[in-house]
Design a protein that fits this description.
five-stranded mixed beta barrel, two-stranded antiparallel ribbon, alpha+beta
Amino acid sequence: MSRSQETFNKKEVRNRKEKKRKEKNEKRAKKKSEGKKSSFDDMIAYVDEFGMISSTPPDPDKRTVIDAESIELKITKNNPEFAQDLQRKGVVTFFNGSKGYGFIRDLESNQSIFVHANNMLEPVIENNIVTFEINKGPRGLSAMNVRLFKEEPGIK
């Protein structure tokens, strides 16, 4: 195939690419001829005591020693005293038995939580007080293991 059928734009694009390739090769040859090699020390950056990046290493006289045992880590995620109560109490605000879904208003947080008929252990109707567990569903929070709340004598 000959290049005579090329459009003006295609020729311009080809010429620009060739020019860019030549410039890149010239830069590479110039860098090689200078002989300056980058060292690891040129690439190192240090952080000073104020959090600023600098090229000078820190002063060893200003160094402070920290005892590893004195560092206190606080993780509340696994601490049982901060764990949320898994069993929640709420009121059924809406339930459509024919479609099999409804909503429960959590008495503690006043949050409306979705409930599906498959997650119910006992049948419920509107305004029933129920106990349930909160689970993350595909579209948000959903109630699991829903059952009617029955007060045991002497326990509130």
